[in-house]
Batch of 4 targets.
Target 1
Amino acid sequence: MTTDTLFPPVAADSGPPWQAGPMEFTLVQHFDAHLPDVIELYGDPDFFTSLPPTLRLATPELVSCDRSAATVVLSLRHRLTAELPAMVTRFVDPTKLTWVETTTLDLTTSRSTSIMQPDEYPELLRASAEATFAQLDGGATRTVTGRVEVPVPIFGAKVEGAIVEGLEEHLRGEEAAAGQRLNG
């Protein structure tokens, strides 16, 4: 059987052709520090509330932090500060583009899970991520794998791409700030 490479077959459950589906990403952060120190930092709310703003995001605000012997549950409110295209602002108020990221850091497994819950427009964004911390020779890594979905026909995939770019920019800034804090 030959397939037309210009029009590859579409899986039956992939949804309508104008809606691409969730965008997934993976980013690896590197630290010149011991694993326990990196994990401790990622369980510290002061680290996150001291991060400088990026071109797209304001400095996170602490909503809550609950710590036990085995876990840290940290909730941070994020606010989008990027300029949005007029096509998007016809449907959403840019001043209402805030969300709470709730991260559960399991201190026993060196893993975390995060869910992003919009304060407004909950039907327009679904996002989650997992992170795995690992010790390497002379340092540690944090591998973040996430999924972003904006279930809006036609331009949802473009918005997903912009969100992922913003998340990657934020994670790179976070990595640099963590390196300064850990080694400074």
Target 2
Amino acid sequence: MLVTGDEVFYPNHGAGCVKDVETLQITGSPQEYYKIFIASNSLSLYVPTNEARRMGLRKLSSPQQLEEARQHFFAGSAKLPMNSTERKTMLKDKLHSGTAADLYEILRDMVCSKGHDTKLTADDKHVMEHTLHLLSSELMMVRNISLAEAEQLLKKDMEVRSASMG
């Protein structure tokens, strides 16, 4: 169980901090919720404690775990499905997993999509921007840097990866 002060990652919104564990009666009987503050969005949200794991809530990655996940970005890329519906489903599943490795893989495979003759749709580009934001928020908290600095680090990695393709 998470406690007040734990730094966490929530796949829908990014990295944050557990501010409290509260008992609330939203529907039906009272239930315990984590109150989480997501700094990158200035957002407070409640996640039911008994559903937190299923919803992808996890402790923030360590610096070592984040660096290991980053290595996925520079590893061989996977070809995204050509069918946009299949691609959307695969990307949604990886986003929902919320692991840093999956998020880096989404960025990697999208950056490398031209090399696989895959044309990204507007939805794909939105997913890429959302993934960039999610990873930036985790990088921000793990490295104790600003969100803008975290985004710049990731964009630099994306430029290096893109340049290495051709």
Target 3
Amino acid sequence: MHRFRAFALAAVLISSSGLALDVGDPAPTFVLPSLGGDDIFLRDFCGERLRDPSATPRVVILDFWATWCAPCRRSLPAIRETVARFDSTKVVLIIVSEDDAKTRSRVAGALLPLAGNEYCALDTYRWVMQKTYGLSAIPRTFVISPRGKIEAILASHEDPAVLSNELSKALARVRAE
């Protein structure tokens, strides 16, 4: 009974936290450790103020994922294939693993090798997913413009054409600016 109350309370806090993000909102920035131990900063890839001013901002596909999530395991290969069809100098995939310390060892086996424009961040305590992005469920994918604005939020990726279409639209907007 106490577990249920705690879960219900957490669900209410998450849903009423005011963090509901929408298309057009600035993507909340974050820093997370990578599989290799380096830090991954969203500002390395997009936003008004990149950490490295000489870097070229890119469209970011931010995918919240976990090895224990069956829909995540089914959708991630299609996401990776879709991103691979685009110019790696213009698009980057950041896979945010929501695996805890017990299942973290499976992450490398599930994801490696990573392509040159793929990064895996470890959100072991789900701070970025829940507190920063206001999510209560995965899989969830954000398409973020080079300027750091949310272009699309996808709840499921069963049809890779949806992600491909959103990516194409984001890149077309970049060319038009």
Target 4
Amino acid sequence: MKKVVLVLMLGVLGLGMQSASAQSMSKSLGLHVFPSNDQDQATQEADEAECYKWAINQTGYDPINPTVVQSEQVDTSADGTAVKSSARSAAGGAAVGAIAGDAGKGAAIGATVGGARGIRAKKGGDAQQQQANDQAAANVSADLAADYNKAFAVCMEGKGYSVK
């Protein structure tokens, strides 16, 4: 009895896997293809396979194994921003300290504040630049996929299908 149930469960799972893998190329691309010339299912599948290969040759992009577009990584190493800001602030602190009676103490406070300000500004700028680089990479990926879909649709339309 247990063997029969196990066999039935495996059979049901197998059918489920078969229907999941039987999804057409056009559906996986988010396209709707209608056979305008009464092509049967086998012909449509063969045409989709041929157009899949043709579109890869035209665009260099394979939607099943998509090209990974890496964003350029921002250089987060020290670049002297903190030192420059620290020197400016030290000079200002020395001037204020001279008025208050202790130029050395004013310069030290100014240098510390300026250095922290410079580091914070660099980190903020780096984060914004990295975000822009990541967005640019995402845009390139989307453009590659869109170009492939256009090529696939053109091929299918050339074979007598309506594609939306």
